[in-house]
Amino acid sequence: MTRSDFGSPPRDGRIVILTGAGISKESGLDTFRDANGLWSRVRIEDVATPEAFARDPARVQAFYNARRRGLREAAVTPNAAHRALVALEQRWPGEILLVTQNIDDLHERAGSEKLIHMHGELFKARCLACAGIMDWRDDLESTTLCPGCNSTGGLRPHVVWFGEMPLEMDRIYQALADCDLFVAIGTSGTVYPAAGFAMEALAAGAHTVELNLEPSAGPSAFAERRLGPATRIVPDFVERLLSDR
Ligand code: APR
User: Fold this and answer.
1) Strand, coil or helix: 146
2) How far is the CA of 214 from the centre of ligand 1 (A)?
């Protein structure tokens, strides 16, 4: 029996979950491509590429400073969907890997532990001079001193920009090749390599599920799809997975 013969994952199967901006929307954080999303207000080429940072570092820093402040607001807290994934991690007997495209820290604030931030983290900075990566919750300016090497001008947000390689890809592709169930939550499926994960998992014989407000773009690699707000459909899906055991 191959893994694709299972209509749902084996009771202790391996699960990979991919999340996108949609899971944090009901926590008060904007998505990118919905009407009024971040990319409707600012151009990717101006704030989210290495070329933009080389051309106008102050503008790029200002964009991420504003997002960092937004993430520090007291009203921005993990929601029921983040919490449901913690319950799944704690109660599922098999292996689980949570891969997020989000640079917010709502998964870890909720309590998720087996987590990869493939697009980096807003609350971290990286120094171009010494390559150090450090926790960072305040604004970054071109005059900010790196605590590691004392140079100025080298600190940048530890986020993956367009044209840069996402993080921990070997680990992610290995988990996709081995998984029995792949679940994508709140992502439009427009940005590769994450947009190709469902196809990778399907080709490896996994059951593939999309949980989203609206269907993601392009030809679907999903065997199952549930539409609705993440705070409703993610807890429902997790409850069903755990009760099917
Ligand atoms: N519940 C569930 N899904 C939602 C909700 C909600 N409340 N609100 C919006 N969504 C869905 C949208 O329908 C859409 O499919 O979330 C998805 C958001 O898509 P994008 O804005 O494109 O975000 P994402 O897929 O995470 O973007 C991928 O692009 O520029 C970047 O680097 C950035 O990591 C990001 C990447």
Assistant:
1) coil
2) 10
